[in-house]
Amino acid sequence: MTAMRANSEDLRELYRELILDHARSPRHFGKLPSATHEAEGINPLCGDKLRLYLEIDGERITDARFEGSGCAISVASASLLTDTVIGMRTEEAIAFFDALVRRLTGDQEAEDQRSGNGLDLGKLRALEGVREFPSRVKCATLAWHALQSAINRNEAPATTE
Ligand code: ZN
What's the CA-to-centroid distance between 20 and ligand 1, angstroms? Predict the structure, then answer.
């Protein structure tokens, strides 16, 4: 068990670096003039606020950007989101959102039981560390709520409350 523990500590460190990197140098940051869909996300608990822009061509997300301000986790999560969803079909992106939220809210067992249906979260596993801090889960999922709103063309801002 000791070796396992060391491994997971190493991973934790790696993920922390990944989050800090995305928070310091967010990818796809700024307005997207060609956006076809957009939504605002607000997390009143932490003061995170962002606007997500999507360019959707048919069923496919062809570009994504975001702007706004917030804590490191919310910015890193939005940056990872844009990196992840570009090129995805909208329904794929929504499925990804669902899987990520289930992971972060601790419904891991239900997730594991879905044999053969597990999505590879890839770099987004970096966000799993927030599971131990329920208030930070809202920071990590804010951009994803905005993604869902943007795709569904919801007029009201997506809020974590
Ligand atoms: Zn936050």
Answer: 13
φ, ψ of residue 4 to 5 degrees: the values are: -55, -45
Q: Tell me: the pLDDT tens digits for 16-30? A: 899 999 999 999 999
Separation of 69 CA from ligand 1 center, angstroms? 9
Instruction: Write out the DSSP string of 90-114.
Output: HHHHHHHHHHHHHHHTT-HHHHHHS
Q: What is the pLDDT of residue 116?
A: 43
How far does residue 39's CA lie from ligand 1's centre (Å)? 18
Provide the pairing of β-strand 60-69 with 48-57: antiparallel
- Compute the distance from residue 92 Cα to the ligand 1 centre, in Å: 26
